[in-house]
Amino acid sequence: MPSAVIWAAAMRSARDFTSKAGGFAPSAVLAVTTIRARCSAADLDTTFDGRASYGAALLGYQFRRERLILKLFAGVEAEDQNISPRDPENAVQGSAVGFKLQAESWLDLSASWFASADAAYGTAFQEYWSLARIGHRLGPRLSLGLEGGALGNEEYDAGRGGGFVRVNLRALEMTLSGGFTGNYLEDEPSGYVSLGLYRAF
Length: 201
Hints:
Lipocalin, twelve-stranded antiparallel β-sheet, 12 strands, 0% helix, 72% strand
């Protein structure tokens, strides 16, 4: 179990581009993530230090019908996982480049309620990610709700569930979420906190 994790990310999201009609959207997702984690394996009596870097570039097509928006993306991803000393039991190590698919959807259930569902899969380390949310608008700039999803790669599978708060500040959107995550029923769950910043250009 990690004893220290430092996470930093910069993202330009596909949600930055939303036209009023369907068609090819000049949409791209560029993300760079750096993670530092230190953990001890009791059976090996070893302390591991890990760093990961990730980047992806996607192009997509948008469908829009009344209150529903659906975006489909495809592109490439690159990831580097560096664990020192090398963990012989971890298959997710080294550098890999792969193909990535991503889908995003948004549905306005009413003037006050909305739902969204996003999912992605990449071949670099057989990574997958999904997140569903249902939210309530408290005003033109503030909304809150519940979220749940699944994530993993060829080495692990996990689920998570919690809540989120979203604030719209003109061209900037900020989403703060938190809750519990874990390897389903195999381990004790732990907490998570996520902060997403999206800016329209």
